[in-house]
Design brief:
This protein has about 325 residues and is an alpha/beta fold. The protein has a domain of about 70 residues. About 30% of the residues lie in helices and about 25% in strands. The protein has an 8-stranded mixed sheet, with helices on both faces. Strand 9 and strand 10 form a beta hairpin. Helix 4 packs across helix 6. It is globular and about 65 Å long. The chain starts with a strand and ends in a 19-residue tail after the last strand. The structure holds adenosine-5'-triphosphate and magnesium ion (MG). Magnesium ion (MG) binds next to helix 1. The site of magnesium ion has 4 residues, from helix 1.
């Protein structure tokens, strides 16, 4: 599977600062890449750092107390942390765009939809005002808006939640980005529209060779859409695998739990197993493996030492002592201090 990389995230760490000295680490040295034309899924429970990952990549943490304190993000050969704000603005919304989890937060309440969409399109293309308007209407129709002309004349507050979510999706796709970061893009929509929009994203992805980072709670969506998946837990990547491998042979106990809690058609199971316990508070992380307090396989070692992300096969990685290829052999440079 040799594929040209579009995005490489390397040991990225983001902290939120309560004051100059105290911070919580929301994502801790995460590394992954996305190939050209690939759909990578990012899954994990609420609070595990999915949205912070996407905001860190897009350099959109300025309005929070968050800061990237380590690592790099290489997009299309460029180190994004080193770009000026102006250069970053040219990439955002153009070569790289994002569908936010909160639709209303990214629509300008004081501007009509047509103006917002036309401005966005013209900022990143050479289209005339009229051509940009036509493209806006076309893409609104593609995301299932039956009357684009009426919606174009509306202000955001005149739209329902589902409608504004669709406008957001249309805006994000309107400049044919190379990378689309979609943070729970369809969670607020009903099932039919959800399927329609995922279908559209996949169609554009195939036609234009776009890459997608798809953030979702829904493993059904992952199975339908993604080629590879990364699983996050408490700010770290705990497993990475091609989609079929993840579903057929999950190696991390947390992934195993996630998959077990997906309903299977026709299984007759009424009560689904869920993973007991809850995600740890990032400011009071347990010693050792972050998942150990909830893990039915945890041993003493798990409660004391943090596991690495081990390579379990050519394309699969897992952060669990059960998968330690050197089990029993003391690891170089990692002796207890
Ligand atoms: N603006 C903020 N200020 C301080 N801490 C934050 C902020 N945003 C996120 N965090 C911290 O980062 C952690 C990860 O949050 P994030 O929003 O990335 O979770 P998520 O995986 O997207 O969850 P969800 O599935 O609910 O969207 C949170 O648990 C919280 O501790
Ligand atoms: Mg989120």
């Amino acid at each position: 599977m040799v594929q040209e990389k579009l995005l490489t995230v390397n040991k990225l760490r983001t902290e939120f600062f309560q004051n100059k000295k105290t911070s919580v680490t929301a994502i801790n040295e995460i590394s992954f890449d996305i190939g050209k034309g690939e759909i990578l899924g990012l899954v994990g429970e609420s609070g595990c750092g999915k949205s912070v990952t996407s905001l860190s990549i897009m350099r959109l943490l300025n309005f929070t107390s968050g800061k990237v304190t380590k690592g790099e993000v290489i997009f299309d050969g460029k180190d994004l942390q080193k770009l000026s704000e102006k250069e970053m603005r040219e990439i955002r919304g153009g070569k790289m765009s994002m569908i936010f989890q909160e639709p209303m937060s990214s629509l300008n309440p004081a501007m009509r939809i047509d103006k917002q969409m036309i401005e966005g399109i013209r900022l990143h293309t050479n289209l005339s005002k009229q051509e940009a308007r036509e493209r806006a209407a076309k893409i609104l129709q593609q995301v299932g808006i039956p009357d684009p002309e009426r919606v174009l004349k509306n202000y955001p507050h005149q739209l329902s939640g589902g409608m504004s979510q669709r406008v957001m999706i249309a805006m994000a796709m309107s400049c044919n980005p190379q990378l689309l970061i979609a943070d729970e893009p369809t969670t607020a929509l009903d099932v039919t529209i959800q399927a329609q929009i995922l279908e559209l994203m996949k169609k554009i992805q195939q036609e234009e060779g776009m890459s997608i980072l798809l953030i979702t709670h829904d493993l059904g969506v992952v199975a339908e859409m993604c080629t590879r998946v990364i699983v996050m837990y408490a700010g770290e990547i705990v497993e990475e695998a091609p989609v079929e491998v993840l579903f057929n042979n999950p190696t991390h106990p947390y992934t195993e739990g996630l998959i077990a809690s997906v309903p299977k058609l026709g299984s007759g199971v009424k009560v689904l197993p869920s993973i007991p316990g809850s995600v740890p508070d990032l400011s009071m992380l347990p010693k050792g493996c972050r998942f150990a307090p909830r893990c039915k396989y945890a041993t003493e070692r798990c409660h004391n030492e943090e596991p690495d992300l081990f390579e379990v096969s050519e394309h699969q990685k897992c952060r669990c002592w059960l998968r330690d290829p050197h089990a029993g052999v003391p690891r170089e440079g990692k002796e207890e201090k």
